[in-house]
Amino acid sequence: MKLSLWPESIKARVTLSTLGVFLLSLWLLAFLTTRMLERDISRLVADAQSSAARQMALQIDRELQSRLEVLEHKALLIDSDLMAHPVALQNVLQHQPIPNSLFNVSVLVVNNDGIAIADTSNLPERIGINYRERVDAFAIALNEGHANVGNPLMGLSTGQPLIPLAVPIRDASGKVIGALGGAIDLSRPNFFDDLTARGYGGTGHYSIISKNGRIIVTSSNSALIMTALPAPGVNPVLDRAMLEDVGNTYRYTTVEGIDTLAVTRGTATTDWLVAVMTPVSEAFAPIDDMLRRMTLITLAVTLLVGIALWWVMQHQLQPMLTTVDTLGAKVRSAQPMQSLPMTGRKEVDSLIAAFNRLLGQLSAREEETQRFKTIADNAVYGEAIADLEGTLVYINRFLAEIHGYHPAELIGKNLSVFHATSQLEQLNNTLNQLSQNGYFSPCEVWHADRHGSEFPMLMSGVLIKDDQGCPQYMATSAVDITDRKAAEVALKQINDELEQFVYIVSHDLKSPLITINTFLGILQEDITDSNTEGITEDLDFIKQAAAKIEALLDALLRLSRIGRIDSAPQTQPVKKMVDECLKVLGGRLQQQQVEVVVGEMTDQWHGDLTHFGQLWQNLIENAIKYMGDQPRPRIEIGTEQRTEGQVFYVRDNGIGIAPAHHQRIFTMFAQLDQKSEGTGLGLALVKKIVESYQGRIWVESAGKGQGSCFWFTLPAAVDAPWVQDAEQGEG
Ligand code: ADP
């Protein structure tokens, strides 16, 4: 079975598709809204950051400027004399001190070589140190002669970050003779604290960056204070921000991996930049909130829309579902299909109308098919339909029953079920002819029933094709020709017998006629010679010959009547028939002193009593006739029960019959002794009577002088059901 996540129900499909489109639209809306909001919020955040950065830059400028001004003012008090007297200079510095709030470390004076000569902190270890090399602010003041704020550096004695400021000291001629500088220790309270005490916004912060030093001077994020920036080229966004210090917005990822929005602004006093940083997560937090809320609302709305849609679909599709249920129930009930009722829904009704039209056509075809099926089912010849592999899909009662089956047993079986293995080649030839020509002409095909009995059928076949002419099935018709074949055989036998009969009759009638003709000639001579004795003798011979012709004609007449119903069949005990026959032949039996022994006979025969009489009379008469010179003639009459049924016999101790003649004596005019009395038709008559009752007759004799025993069966007379009925009736 193929598994699919896509449901089969139209209702479910429409609901899912609509919800899919709905969700997609909402997602698209959320996506576009988010993009727009991000852009707007970015701009707002950037404006706020820019404004904050500008404020801070201005404040830093103010603070540094005021400190430089204080230093410059102080430098004016120092001349070349004072420079030449460091102690006096130290006094001046200490007695007119610069407030600690401006420079929280110390203020010191260096001479033209940059060597410290006075220090407000009065720390002796500073005096004598060359600051020109260590502090760029002093170097610039001494070399370039202007006030400046130097790059931040780590204090020599404090080990803490410092920001140095320095101004030049000039003599009366304006020549730089030294420099006055102060430092702000960032680890101690200072004016940056006010600026960077609080971060920016919730999680954002300020940083003040020295462009030249590529170092963060200070930051509201204390972890960043005095950290070096990456070398140029490492972070392009940072490099660009260092160049463009006019309030542009940058988005970058910090070393901690935080997606950040930043704005930088340059200061006028120094090369410093004020950077205001806001994590994107904070800046866009409202969007995230909005998205969360939107997702919840979307889910709730989707659920509601889904339920509503399902309900609407259920309501709208109900007529269709009801129709389908009705249809299913009708199909299951196997009753004749009737038109489906209309529902009042336009689309469903047009479907039902089309279906009802189809149903009409279908039932018309069904009726037609049923008519033909009824004819085929009840035909007195066979009809079968098989697919192209020979598998039976239809078979009528006649064809099934003639093979010993019920039609239902054969559906799904192969055509070869009707044939014995020896017949399959003939079957295959016939089927090949069918597939090549599209039909096969009527031909005799041998079949076998389920017990293996073979019988002939006359068959014809045709291929059933579809509208495109492609073969679909094989249809065959078959007629049982067993009787016809048997009749053909019987007819041939009769013709053969008739031919033989005409030949023998003409021959046997000829010999007494020749006798008559011959003695008529002699008679004529004897009359001419007046030979009275001769005339009497001649007339005797002529009389005997005429009697022979009469006997022959009588016997032939009797023979021809066998098989014809001369009188109504009757039932009579066999013993009675035998007794009557013995009574008729009583004179001869007595004359020849024949002893007759009749065994116990309880059977009754049903049939033509004349035939039964002729049967017994011929056999008993022959026994008397062919007794020979037997001194103790004896005839036994009786019956025996054998496997083939009841067998009757007439046994004599007469001249016997050589085995060579045991068959011949039953043919017409067969006489072993031409001089014997009789016609040679008696046993032929007996055989014909026996065979007309489906019996057989045969003789047993050891040979000449050994006596003979004639055996016969009469199944149709003895075993026939009417005999049983008659017996019961009599009983
Ligand atoms: P037929 O009129 O000659 O008796 P059947 O047809 O009755 O003709 O018998 C044919 C021949 O069979 C007889 O001619 C005789 O030779 C021989 N035959 C018949 N019955 C006996 C018998 N009981 N014993 C010996 N031969 C017999």
TrEMBL record:
Segments passing through the bilayer: 12-33, 294-313
Enzyme Commission numbers on file: 2.7.13.3
Cellular component annotations (GO), alphabetically ordered: plasma membrane
An example molecular function term from Gene Ontology annotations: phosphorelay sensor kinase activity
Reaction(s) catalysed by this chain's protein: ATP + protein L-histidine = ADP + protein N-phospho-L-histidine
UniProt topology in membrane: Multi-pass membrane protein
Top EC category: transferase
InterPro entries membership: BphY/WalK/GraS-like, dCache_1, HATPase_C_sf, HATPase_dom, His_kinase_dom, HisK_dim/P_dom, HisK_dim/P_sf, PAS
Residue intervals of the Histidine kinase domain: 504-718
Record keywords, A-Z: ATP-binding, Cell membrane, Kinase, Membrane, Nucleotide-binding, Phosphoprotein, Transferase, Transmembrane, Transmembrane helix, Two-component regulatory system
Alphabetical GO biological process terms: osmosensory signaling via phosphorelay pathway
Keyword set includes Transmembrane helix: yes
Entries under PANTHER family matching the protein: BACTERIOPHYTOCHROME (PTHR42878:SF15), TWO-COMPONENT HISTIDINE KINASE (PTHR42878)
Name listed for the protein in its UniProt record: histidine kinase
Organism: Pelovirga terrestris
